[in-house]
């Protein structure tokens, strides 16, 4: 079976859940999958998108377990290692979804890890057209639907805060002012980053601190400090 497809047992291991629980979720239509010759098959890209939709409703413990399942090493700084001050803009001079995405990719290029910015921008646009990555909290996490190893040297993050909230597709018409662009070379790192970010968003006061940060340096420090506290909690 190709690495893009999983059977029931492989999916259970991927999700770190009991195979019987996964079977029930699939049978009830809660998991994206289809049967081939009477056996369930799951596309990795569709499962990853499903995981993304579940993250905002997961508890800290569930997010930690998900992150641990995707980690090869122990707990270590992740966001701070993929994000640099050069890839941060505070405030970002953009007022539309299209301009935000373009500027985020431009920021990611400052890492010198982006080999094909046009491919990344196109992939991020397509992902946003499928469903907005904006959350009710005023944060959005734009990213390609699939990893783009050929377009990147290493996985990279970019972060920006607009001076005021803009329409980005958040639920109930809410505005968005905090943006994390996630560009990873593999699914494992992608899921770890999303889980780590979501855990940070749950920390009381973290988003307020980001909104109060006035420089890229201060913003990076807030993110790095919060991540360290998370790892040593």
**Strand coverage percent:** 15-25%
Stretches where pLDDT falls below 50 for ≥5 residues?
none
Radius of gyration: 18 Å
Give the end-to-end Cα distance, rounded to a whole number of Å. Answer: 40 Å
Give the CATH architecture of the largest domain. Answer: 3-Layer(aba) Sandwich
Largest sheet: 4 strands, mixed
Which structural class matches the secondary elements? Answer: alpha/beta
Task: Assign the CATH class of the largest domain.
Answer: Alpha Beta
Number of domains: 2
Question: What is the helix fraction of residues, given as a range?
Answer: 40-55%
Shape: globular
Total beta strands: 7
**Helix and strand succession?**
EHHEEHHHEHHEEEHHH
CATH superfamily of the largest domain: Mannitol-specific EII, Chain A
Strand order of the largest sheet: 4-6-7-5
Query: On the 0-100 scale, what is the average pLDDT?
Result: 89
The total of helices stands at 10
By CATH, the topology of the largest domain is Mannitol-specific EII, Chain A
Put the structure in a nutshell.
The chain is α/β, with parallel strands linked by helices and 233 residues long. 47% of the residues lie in helices and 16% in strands. It has two domains: 5-57, Orthogonal Bundle (Multidrug-efflux Transporter Regulator, Chain: A, Domain 2); 79-231, Mannitol-specific EII, Chain A (3-Layer(aba) Sandwich).
What do you see in this structure?
The chain has 233 residues and is an alpha/beta fold. It has 2 domains: 5-57, Multidrug-efflux Transporter Regulator, Chain: A, Domain 2 (Orthogonal Bundle); 79-231, Mannitol-specific EII, Chain A. Helix content is 47%, strand content 16%. The chain contains 10 helices and 7 strands. It has helices at 8-15, 19-27, 44-54, 60-70, 79-82, 97-109, 117-130, 187-202, 206-212, 216-231, and strands at 5-6, 34-36, 39-43, 88-92, 139-140, 156-167, 175-183. The chain has a 4-stranded mixed beta sheet with strand order 4-6-7-5. Strand 6 (156-167) and strand 7 form a beta hairpin. The longest helix has 16 residues, at 187-202. The model has no long low-confidence stretch (mean pLDDT 89).
């Amino acid at each position: 079976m190709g690495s893009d497809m999983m059977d029931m047992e492989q999916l259970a291991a991927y999700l770190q859940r009991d195979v019987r629980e996964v079977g029930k979720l699939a049978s009830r239509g809660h998991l994206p999958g289809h049967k081939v010759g009477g056996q369930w098959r799951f596309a990795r890209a569709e499962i990853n998108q499903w995981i993304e939709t579940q993250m905002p409703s997961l508890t800290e413990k569930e997010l930690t377990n998900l992150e641990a399942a995707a980690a090869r090493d122990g707990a270590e700084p992740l966001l701070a290692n993929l994000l640099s001050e050069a890839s941060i803009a505070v405030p970002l001079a953009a007022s539309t979804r299209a301009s935000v995405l373009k500027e985020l990719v431009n920021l990611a290029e400052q890492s010198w890890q982006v080999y094909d910015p046009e491919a990344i921008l196109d992939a991020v646009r397509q992902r946003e057209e499928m469903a907005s990555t904006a959350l009710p909290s005023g944060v959005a996490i734009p990213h390609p639907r699939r990893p783009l190893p050929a377009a990147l040297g290493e996985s990279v993050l970019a972060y920006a805060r607009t001076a005021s909230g803009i329409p980005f597709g958040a639920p109930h018409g809410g505005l968005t002012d905090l943006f994390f662009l996630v560009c990873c070379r593999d699914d494992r790192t992608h899921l770890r980053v999303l889980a780590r970010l979501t855990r940070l968003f749950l920390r009381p006061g973290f988003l307020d601190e980001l909104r109060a940060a006035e420089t890229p340096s201060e913003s990076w420090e807030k993110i790095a400090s919060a991540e360290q506290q998370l790892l040593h909690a």
